Every structure is written in C-alpha cells, then in structure tokens.
C-alpha cells in the first residue's frame, strides 16, 4: 500500500528566542514546508497585522501550510473573551489548523465539571473555526484531559463535533509499543503529529537527537493514518531540538525529511 507522504513541518516554539523572520529563514533553508506558530511568543492572539506579515513572508518562501499553536485551555480559559481573537488571528495567518489544549490536571483528578466545561468550550471553538475553514485539534500532552488515548477519546466523544480532532506526540516515559497503540486508537480523530525524541530522566526529560529515535518513528509513520474525516495536509511538525541549537535542528530536519519522503 502506498501511504500519503507527510509534509515536514516545524513548531516555532522550537526557537522561542528567535524572531519569526529568523525562523522562516532557518526553516526555508532546511526543507520545512509547514510551520505551527506559537501564540506565546511569536504571534500573540489579536496581532492581526503581524499574522499577515508572517503569512506573506511564508508564502514567499514556499511555506504554504500554517497552523496556529494557541494556549487556550478548554474548560479553564475564558472562552467568551478568548475564542474570537484566536480565530481572527488564525484566519489572518492563513492557517488551516488551530491547536488548543484541554483542561489542566497538573497531577489532580479531573472533576466532572472540568470535563463538561472542556467539552462545551471545544464545541464553541470548533464551531467558530469551522466558519473560517480552520480545523481544530487538541494537544496530546501530560497534565491535561488529553494525556492518554482513552481520555482523549472520552473528551472528543463528549464534544462530538465534526471539526474537532486530536494531535499526537510521544509521552517519553511510555514505551514505543504504547505509542503505536495510542496512534491506532486515536485514528478516528487524528490530525497531525508533533515529532521529537526525548529520553525520560529526572528531574526533567532530556532532548536527544531525532536520529536516535528514527527507527521508532519509521514504525509510527508507517502506521500513521489520519481521521477519515480529515481532508487537509498531513503534517509532521518537528518540535524541540537538543540544547535548542540550530546545528542540531539541521540534523533533525534531515531525519524528518527522510521520514516524510519514505513510502510504505
């Protein structure tokens, strides 16, 4: 079977200390075709002029696919005040995709109210984004309601919206075999992947060269099927590099480009 080849992408938060212009130059010189722009530093919500500037420069460099990586937390953030600026900024960026987060568990057991509030907010943001042709995905991340595949499925089933999907990224302290199971379980809702290689450690995870995890990622890419409802690009966003160094990014991008060009 010939699988659709993913597009190699980059999360701008990989270089939080670099300007958007510098990131675009670095990206374009290393085969990046899509960028997820972080709302914490590079493109704050409501900065519509800046979003347009980034969009124009991206197009000039051949980076056509754009995602807006927000830090809106469904069930926690002020949905009434925050959703409209997020959608307006994503639209000005020319983004086809908006990332949001789901709740904040931070080691605590999520209450029924948090689950319900998060589902309500996800429906609201998915509705608003749909009017602009922007798909919405929840971040797959520790300390949230979407920390495991089963909980992600629970929340997306509660929200039950045709414009709502899930990202996926590896949880470092889980075995690669578990990653493949998670990917399979999430397939009905799956959009894009965040790609990195971390070594679990104490007190914090250690960023390692992507090349060290290439075999695991080859397996994941070979089994990566997006949601049957998804009709957009299939993007693998590189996120985080060892020591935040540009030379390590260059090497990681060589690996990612190789993964994206492989056929299964």
UniProtKB/TrEMBL annotation:
Pfam families: AP_endonuc_2. Keywords: Isomerase. InterPro entries: IolE/XylAMocC-like, Xyl_isomerase-like_sf, Xyl_isomerase-like_TIM-brl. The keyword Isomerase applies. SUPFAM superfamilies: Xylose isomerase-like. Residues 25-258 form the Xylose isomerase-like TIM barrel domain. One of its GO terms (molecular function) is isomerase activity. It comes from the Bacteria. This is Sugar phosphate isomerase/epimerase.
């Amino acid at each position: 079977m010939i699988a659709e080849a993913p597009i190699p992408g980059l999360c701008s938060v990989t270089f939080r200390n670099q300007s958007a212009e510098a990131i675009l130059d670095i990206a374009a010189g290393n085969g990046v075709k899509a960028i997820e722009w972080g709302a914490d530093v590079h493109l704050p919500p409501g900065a519509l002029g800046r979003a347009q500037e980034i969009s124009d420069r991206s197009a000039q460099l051949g980076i056509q696919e754009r995602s807006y990586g927000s830090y809106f937390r469904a069930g926690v953030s002020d949905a009434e005040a925050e959703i409209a600026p997020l959608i307006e900024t994503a639209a000005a960026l020319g983004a086809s995709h908006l990332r949001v987060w789901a709740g904040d568990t931070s080691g605590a057991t999520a209450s029924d109210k948090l689950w319900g509030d998060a589902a309500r907010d996800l429906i609201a943001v998915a509705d608003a984004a749909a009017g602009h042709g922007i798909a919405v995905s929840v971040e797959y991340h520790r300390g949230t309601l979407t920390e495991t595949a089963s909980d992600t499925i629970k929340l997306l089933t509660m929200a039950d919206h045709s414009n709502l999907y899930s990202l996926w990224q590896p949880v470092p302290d889980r075995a690669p075999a578990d990653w493949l199971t998670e990917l399979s379980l999430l397939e009905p809702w799956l959009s894009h992947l965040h790609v990195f290689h971390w070594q679990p450690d104490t007190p914090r995870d250690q960023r390692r060269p992507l090349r060290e995890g290439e075999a695991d990622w080859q397996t994941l890419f070979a089994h990566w099927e997006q949601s049957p409802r998804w009709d957009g690009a299939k993007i693998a966003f590189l996120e985080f590099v060892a020591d935040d160094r540009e030379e390590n990014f260059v090497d990681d991008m060589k690996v990612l480009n190789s993964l994206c060009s492989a056929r299964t």
